[in-house]
User: Fold this.
Amino acid sequence: MNENKNKTKKKNSSAAAKLIKVLVPSILIGAVLGFLIGYYQEMVADVDMTAFWDSFNTASYYAMPAVYAVVFIAIIALCLHFISKAKKIIANWDGEDEDTIDKAEKSLSISLSIGSIGNLVTYFMFGLWAYFMSNAAIEWDAKTLVISLAFLLLFLVSLIVSVLIQRTAVELTKKVNPEKKGDLLDFKFAKEWENSCDEAEKLTIYKSGYLAYKVTNYVCIGLWLICVLGEMSFGFGITPLLFVTAIWLSLTLTYLITAYKLENKR
Amino acid sequence: MPLYNKLKDFRTKLGVNQQQMGALVGTSRQTISQIERGDYSPSVTLALKIAKVCGVSVEDIFEYSEDGTNE
Assistant:
């Protein structure tokens, strides 16, 4: 019994030591950051940056469609490269060699991952462009209208192309794994796909989901801190804090309610 | 992982590939591959299904060894 007590004591003191190792550097970093923010505010308090930001926003507004097109084409090219690689392997697969079909599935998985991240990047760039449009010193004439409409059209086309490419990857996956169900264009796709997964695949989904939940919790704490410090130092406003809280709350509530339902099913 | 298996041997005796084995037991090709590599321990239900398809008992295919040695 004493041995167990000693083991627990040792474990607790080791955990406390680890906590101190994290807390002390965090406090020091926080102090340095706070000093730098205060110093920066003092330095730029009387500096008028309006002209600089006007020029920057205007230049960015006009450059954004080209930048967006380049980024989008690069993402699509990468996705198509891996899909094409998988297609070739599947076409030549004899139905027996497991290493070969593993390579095809890996390529498809990479393609889908690039597509998912690529979507986030394009959404972000669209949001950036909306910001530049609101804050640029531009004349609203025919030229500006054409550029704006062209960018909107580019964004819509990129969304459609992205979905079609991801659908191709999903259909190829279904070709190799006939037990999989669901059409990407169907609203019920996520549910049908999950239901057609076996126990090992579901375990992977659930483990990944739980890790995503844990990581997002930490990210929300960080974002909350940035929002609070940002409001005190730079006048961010309440909107960012509201959005972070909304995400954090929906994440926590979804987890808690789902866990409660599953617990009470037994 | 303390669970060892001879699934690949039994599957070869049956004359089926991983995809066919998966279809027989109601699981995916990747899961069969993961089980054979020792990367995944099947549930009791799946292990029983595999044993039934192979025409042997679960203990003939899967072996549990706590000390990490395969007897």
Observations:
- The helical segments of chain B are 7-14, 18-25, 29-37, 44-54, 58-61.
- Chain B touches chain A through 18 residues (CB under 8 Å).
- The beta strands of chain B are 3-5, 62-64.
- The longest strand of chain B covers residues 3-5.
